[in-house]
Each structure stands twice: as C-alpha cells, then as structure tokens.
Amino acid sequence: MKLPIALQSSELGKVTMAPLPESYAIEPMHDSYGRRINYLRISLTDACNLRCVYCMPEDMTFRPRQELMTDEELLFLVRVGASLGVNKIRLTGGEPTIRPHLVDLVREIAAVPGIKDLAMTTNAILLDKLAQPLADAGLRRVNISIDTLDGDKFHKITRWGNIDDVWRGIRAAERAGMTPIKLNCVVVRNFNEEDMIDLARLTLENDWDVRFIEMMPFGEISDFQQTNVVTFREMRERVESAFGPLEEAGYDFVDPSRPFRIPGAMGTLGFISSVTEPFCQGCGRVRLTADGKLRLCLLRDNEVDLLSPLRQGATFEEMRSLMLDGAFHKPWGHSLSEGTFAENRAMNQLGG
Ligand code: SAM
Ligand code: SF4
C-alpha cells in the first residue's frame, strides 16, 4: 500500500511563515452562545490503511500532499490555538498513525505551553509498535475503533483490516499506560448490531470504556449512512435485553458519550447519539482538517481557511484573530431531521 509522505515547509518553494512570538498571553475563546472553546481535534491526514464502510467508499481518493499542513504549519496553528485557551487536543485522521514523523510531532505538540491533554483516535492497526514511543512522547490516551469481535466481520466492515492487529494495538496501549482504554464501535444496521453484546461483555472484566456511536451521514455515502443508522434508543434496548437495566455512570455534559454500566462491571458503556440526541450544549470543540481548515461543527459545512493565510505570511496576531473570529461563529445544532447534512467532506477528512 502506498502511504502519504508528509511534506516539509522547505519543499513548498517560496512560502515563508511568519515568526512565532517568544511568548503570548492566553486569551480564552468563546462562541456567540457563550460556549468556551478549549478542545481542538486535528486531522493529521485524510488517508487511511482501512476503508470502513461507514466512513468512505473503497475507491476513495486523497488530497495531494501539497494541500496538507506540514509539521511546522500544524505546530504554528497549535500554538495559535493554545494562545486562545485550547488546552485539550485529539489527533485523528484518516488514520493518524500513518503520518510520517508522528512521534516527533506528538512530542512537539505535547510541549506547547498550555496543552494539558493530548489523545488520539486510531484504528490501532499500527499501534503495536507505536504505543510506547507515543506514550513516551507525551500521548496520554487512545480511543480505538473496533466494531465487532468477529474477525471475518471486522474484515468485511473495514474492507481491509485484520482484527489481530487491533488486539495487539490494544494490548500495547495498555502496556504503555494509555488508560483508560476507550473502544469506539459505530453500529451499522445489518452489519454489526448483534456484535454490540460481545463488545459490551468486554466491560465485565476490563476497565475499558466501550462506546457505541450512531452513524452520521456525510458526502457521497450519506444514503447508506442514513438508511442504516441504529439509534441510541435501539442500541440501549439491545444491550439491556442481554444484560438487564443499565446503571447511569456519572454524566459529564462536556463529554459526548453518555456513560452507563452493566451492574457489577469493571468498565463502562457509552452511547454517542450525535444524530438523534445531539449534545451541542457541552460542545467546546473545533476541528482542524488536514488541509488546514478550521471546521466549526462536525455536522455542518462551515469552515475557516487557516492554511492559505498562513502560507501567505499572516502574522501570529492575524492568525489569532482569524481563529478567534471563526470560533465565535461556531453553529448550534444540526438539521439532519430536515434532510440537511454536511456534504463537503467525508468522515475521513474530519476525524470524528
Ligand atoms: N482512523 C481512526 C479510527 O478509525 O479510529 C480515526 C479517524 S475515524 C474517522 C474517527 C472515528 O470516527 C472512529 O471511531 C470511527 O469509527 C468514527 N466514524 C467514522 N465514520 C463515521 C460515521 N459515518 N458516523 C459516526 N462515526 C464514524
Ligand atoms: Fe480509516 Fe478510521 Fe475511516 Fe475506518 S473510520 S476508514 S479506520 S479513517
């Protein structure tokens, strides 16, 4: 498989980035609804070593590397965000572990003043070897995608994946101390609804957080996604039909996942109901796409281009104003029930 090569700024020709200031005062950003924006999800690449049916078509094409942020550009924007009160970062993709120089990049992001929490969402295919170096570089936690425990089904859902690689990745993340381990499962009708039971059973003897996610519609595969979504209510009923009533396990309104527990279990079960019961009130997230756009809401197309002005030499102060102003316009709510959904990107370009 051909993996992308990260471009360095020196290869971009005549682009000169403005210098970074020696220090900066932290000015927290808020949106027009008064939500404090302190969480940045960064997509490190739109490419991936899998092709999950709920994420992208098998013949997906990816952006040319010149359009993607270099390490230097990404770090510049992280510092801009940190100067505006971003203290929590999640790296995602595509698949973040295929980005070259990932460990060095993680080390540099973790060292940015103000960044307190650095986590990653990954399919874990390459985590076996990377978990310890990433933990040593400052990565604190991982969310790992696994939609079934059945190897054949896993291959069918991901189109290319081998579930043994994921298990090796999970064990390596545990050994490296990246706990609590969170496992993400997108529930897709006629693919893996019944697999929820085996996944939920994992929490009986593992201190893991297994999270069931409603499938969201994006771009060209939205028909498939809309037709096959399994709602939070259905998922909960299915799990309760096997284990009895679930206990609530301490709701935190900034967390999109509603936590429950099978009575007596070591770990928790979460439900992420972005489609049927969105959680906009606690949303302090903005996203940075791999091509340098500030995405204000996962489920809406609104974006602010940060990479073009950065490449045109905008100063740190100018970039701060752009991010601050963009975040102020973060929308509230989605219109999925009216048939309006994000069309300009697929999930692999957003990162979840
Ligand atoms: N490749 C990494 C992975 O799969 O964990 C990170 C990127 S992936 C886009 C981030 C998360 O989004 C994963 O947990 C994935 O299962 C989830 N996801 C992908 N497509 C989705 C969809 N249509 N609706 C809901 N979640 C989705
Ligand atoms: Fe790749 Fe993650 Fe999308 Fe699956 S969900 S195709 S692993 S980016």
Structure description:
The protein has one domain: Alpha-Beta Barrel (TIM Barrel), CATH 3.20.20.70. The strands form two sheets. Strands 9-10-11-8-7-6-5-4-3-12-13-14 form a twelve-stranded mixed beta sheet. The protein has 352 residues and is an alpha/beta fold. The longest helix has 13 residues. The N terminus is likely disordered. Strand 7, helix 6 and strand 8 form a beta-alpha-beta unit. Bound molecules: S-adenosylmethionine and iron/sulfur cluster. Iron/sulfur cluster (SF4) binds next to loops.
How is this structure best summarized?
This protein is an alpha/beta fold. Helices cover 28% and strands 17% of the residues. Bound molecules: S-adenosylmethionine (SAM) and iron/sulfur cluster.
β-sheet strand percentage: 15-25%
The CATH superfamily label reads Aldolase class I
Bound molecules: S-adenosylmethionine, iron/sulfur cluster
Q: Judging from the principal axes of the Cα atoms, what is the shape?
A: globular
Mean pLDDT: 93
Biggest beta sheet attributes: 12 strands, mixed
Would you identify the CATH architecture?
Alpha-Beta Barrel
The value of Rg in angstroms is 20 Å
Query: What is the CATH class?
Result: Alpha Beta
Instruction: Compute the number of strand runs.
Output: 14
By DSSP (H or I, 4+ residues per run), the number of helices equals: 10
Stretches where pLDDT is under 50 for at least 5 consecutive residues are 1-5
The strand line-up of the biggest sheet is 9-10-11-8-7-6-5-4-3-12-13-14
Helical/strand content category: alpha/beta
Domain count: the total is: 1
Percent of residues in helical segments? 25-40%
Distance between the termini: 24 Å
The helix-strand sequence is EEEHEHEHEHHEHEHHEEEEEEHH
